[in-house]
Amino acid sequence: MAVVAFPGCAAASRLTAHPWMRAIRCSSFSSPSPCPPLPPHSSVEPSTSLPSPESSSTSSFFPKRGKTLELVCESLAFKGTGVCKVADTGFVVLCDRALPGERFIGRVSRKKGNYAEVTKLKTITPHWDLVEAPCAYASYCGGCKTQNLHYKAQLKAKELQVRDLIIHVGRFSSTDCAKDCIFKPIVPCDMHFHYRNKVCAVPPFHNCLIGCHSSYVTDLIFVAVKMEFSFGAQCWVPSDGPRGDQDLIENGYALGLHVPGFFDKVLHIDKCMLQSEATNKVLAIVQDCWRDPSLGLSPYDVHTHRGFLKHLMLRTGRDKRTGFAEVMVNFVTSSYKPEMLDPLVGRISTIPEVVSVMNNVNSSVGNTSVGEQEYTLYGKSTINEMLYPSVSFLLMIFFLWIRLERELMVNLNFGGYEMSVGVALMEDNIKKSHLRWFGHIKRRPSDDPVRKVVVLDLAYVKKGRGRPKKTWLENIINNLSLLDLNENLILNRTQWRKMIHAEVLYKLIEDFANLKGDLSEIVLDLFCGTGTIGLTLARRVRHVYGFEVVKQAVSDARQNAVLNGIHNATFIQGDLNKIDGDFGKEFPKPDIVISDPNRPGMHLKLIKYLLNLQASRIIYISCNPATCARDLDYLCHGLPEKNLRGCYRLKCVQPVDMFPHTPHIECICCEATISWCKCPGLQFSQRIQYVLKNYYKEVAGALLMHPLIFISCKN
Ligand SMILES: C[S@@+](CC[C@H](N)C(=O)[O-])C[C@H]1O[C@@H](n2cnc3c(N)ncnc32)[C@H](O)[C@@H]1O
Q1: Which residues have a catalytic role annotated?
Q2: Tell me, what's the ipTM?
Q3: Which residues form the active site (predicted)?
Q4: Same domain, 19 and 96
Q5: CB-based contacts of 133: which residues, under 8 Å, 6+ apart?
Q6: Residue 195 counted as domain residue
Q7: How far is the CA of 550 from the centre of ligand 1 (A)?
Q8: d(CA 490, CA 529)
Q9: 484-502 pLDDT, tens digit each
Q10: Residue 529 C-alpha to ligand 1 middle, in angstroms?
Q11: pTM higher than 0.80 for the full model?
Q12: Is the CB of 556 under 6 A from ligand 1?
């Protein structure tokens, strides 16, 4: 075995961009798409930086496939991949699941352009900041890649990724950035496990409660925790050897999660730390008995297309009266044979939280979890998740609170911000008997004839009466499953809540916008979605102009404006990738630009417009730091090859972590959080508009960071 020794990562040398980073910039010109394909990005701390290409012999060195190398992981790149360099050459290799500081033997598995990928064969010395991963599957299943990295180190790695991208792809000087304190410390997440909500949203919403069917039959919004396990004909368990020797061990059937990258390998899983306790109980029971030969159950084989059990889907909702968790179990099978499932149903229905057992039949050869028919095997056919607290729930809290505190419901005050709490209900479901308890209810009718939504403001400023009661609001927030729009998006309520309380992102945008408040300014809200950010600022500016490509989102933005009594906001449907020289002529020159693009970032046409515009402030909210860095480069440094001069100055970069142990982060929360906090009257009506929509498909996926960028015009 040929082993190339790597001397370690301590040698400090000149900071440089990595090969894939250069690709981001270059490809944006050649590609007609606004978004170049996203290569991995590293986040190398300047002090432990890498050899520069000039000083290395990367061009002459290219390891052969199958070659083994001794490497040290230096940093984490895009999707949490470890970045290493081959000794004496500077040649970059990426290794999945290598963590910073780890010395290991890797085998070259794939060559890619200027770098190669290696598979880890054996760890020689472990990474820095090693902690014991609480989950036994952490190093095998694709979910939590960095569980055994101390959370502080995870944060550091994410922070550095953003910094590295801004410096290398954005071509900003690290010295200048340090001098100007551009990089703000990452906002950490409070909750490290069981935070995961997977969300499906299908309109329309119904009576503050979200009904959830077991599958595509859903006709209501479903906002519930969902985990999907697969049955497999071959059980994959890690061999005793190092991770690199992961050979399939055929020791029977499997129920678990797919091995990353394999549709036919199922990793046996007993418990998942990201899902609820109740669903873990169900999983344990099913695992315990489904292989019993006397039951005659067989897993579906994706190769032979034989077998019965395809998937086990577990969803957690909430009882509308009590607020307690309720679980729906859904067996996806290849045919309808309910009697075969009886023994399993009998056992899992003994779990108090299980209120529904469904059977989706999918007889196609495909192994999707969507069934053609749906049958109820036990309990009800839908579960509920409280999207908004129902009136009765609010009443409950209200009375509880009155009883305990002997105070009237008052305005809730967080860090000096006044928050009223609103709830939106279907008109038909509001009973007068409910309303009479709210002496100071404000009722704002909507002009939506179909949904007849009204917004009820239930909390008011009562000066001198009682003190703000945080727990009351927290209770409500705990029961909100806000704003996530499609099944791929993940929402971490805790972080969201924290952001509300800490007012982090909200305050940032507010600060960055630096509004005069004299109603003189024009705000341009690019990629405005349902208009949340613009509407939040609307009350303090002359006019907001929002642009969005999705027609329904634009109509919701307009609706949101109406619902919130905002008359100085105009929302325009249009594709910002296809603007021409006339763009901007239909509205006055904006003072403040908010740009919140999807992962591809901004199209060059839009960049040109912004360069021409020379707005005094741009606030760039990004779900993809790589394309964000590229756009910042264009805005601040220009594109000489296109004869464009940069005219902005980078002032601040603020990352936020929302998904500990994974490289993922939700990018949508920021906007919603921001709007929700500040402006009375902008709360639940907006939430409703949000969750009714399902147009965010493209923002789903592995997002690393959520940097908020503030740039201002040089002049
Ligand atoms: C990250 S979201 C921004 C959400 C928005 N700021 C809000 O608060 O609701 C990006 C939005 O850009 C929209 N979008 C994507 N491509 C677009 C394009 N080419 N032109 C205009 N809007 C686009 C998407 O539909 C989506 O609503």
Answers
A1: 623
A2: 0.99
A3: 623
A4: yes
A5: 139, 144, 147, 148
A6: no
A7: 8
A8: 18
A9: 222 222 223 333 333 333 2
A10: 5
A11: no
A12: no
